[in-house]
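Ticket #4471: structure export looks truncated?
Reporter: QA, pipeline team
Priority: medium

Steps to reproduce: submit the single chain below to the structure queue and open the exported record.
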Amino acid sequence: MVDSAKDTLNSEQLPAYENLLELEDLRVHFHTQDGVVKAVDGVSFSLNAGETLGVVGESGSGKSVTALSILGLVPMPPGQIAGGDIRFKGQSLIGMKDKDLRQIRGNHIAMIFQDPLSALNPVYKVGKQVAEGLRIHRGYNKQQANARAIELLDMVGIPNPEQRVREYPHQFSGGMRQRAMIAMALACEPEILIADEPTTALDVTIQAQIIELMQRMQHDLGTAIIMITHDLGVVADVADRILVMYAGKPVEYGTADQIFYEPLHPYTWGLMRSIPKRTIDDDKPLTPIKGNPPSLINLPPGCAFSERCPYATDRCREQEPSIKLISDEHFSACFYSDDEEFILNSPIYDDAEELKAQAAAGMLYTGIERDAEDAEDAGGAAQPAGERDNTASTQAGESNG
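Actual output as written to the record:
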């Protein structure tokens, strides 16, 4: 543990990776008639080649705006980069000319959007949309781009790609549209893939297949991935490190094992206690986080989580904590994260030994695996996601946040 006055999170104190992408104290505000919405307020992280960063939090926590900011897709106005920096291979993307940014967008950094039906253009055939990036960034002619689009659709598991390449988005199922979005994102073999809730609204068998596909693409191409989700089960399956966000701010940042087995922030505890687990006591209730996230226009004084935190003190309600280094590569934005007695007496550690024992016995399983098992019980076919070597993959599920 370190002194609470030391080691606030900044770019110099991030783990010593060969950083492909760096965000330093990023702040994104939206100016509205009701006031200034601080959608992203002080986010810092780094991403290494071949690494997966999971970004988790409830809706409205700033996850998607952070991703859109990286690609320069935040509408301005009303949006504004109020501070901080985004660096790709050491080059700042803030203030970059649109012409230069277009050479990076889709070519070096690509994104799978949350809703493929709205992200795909309904008046253009899917094959043309997949091939567009190849023609712009790789100089392919029409025939070459079309042939490569067929290969990509086949690679992501879309049947009859020669026929599907000539069809429109509305002719695809939800899972196929998501696969087409992945094919489009991977067309130019980007160095960074941003996946914004890529399994949202998909049935459980397709969820597992999408996650497995992304893991296979990462293995084959060495792509770095930013996985944005509210599903801790997905994060446990794929992430090397995890950033937990709340009300536009980072509240905890560490390795997957640290976040799942040694969480330090009460908000992370709440997310963890919301995870369904396979236990002997089937009647053991989940413990949801009470209340709702605050308005980003009128945040409460002090810690933004203080109104929902059962451990909040007067200090929490009056002073805003900064995110600080607590232990090796593990950051937290709580005044008491370096108080060992406070941490060890928290409810999240009540079942720590039981969780580890169940993990060793294979009694915990991922949200996707659980849902896939339910689908099989109901007569459906399921294909579970690939397992991570990391032990955190055994303790996963879905947050109800």
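Status: closed, not a bug. The export was complete when the record was re-opened. Leaving a note from the reviewer for reference: Confidence is low (pLDDT under 50) at residues 1-17, 358-372, 380-401.
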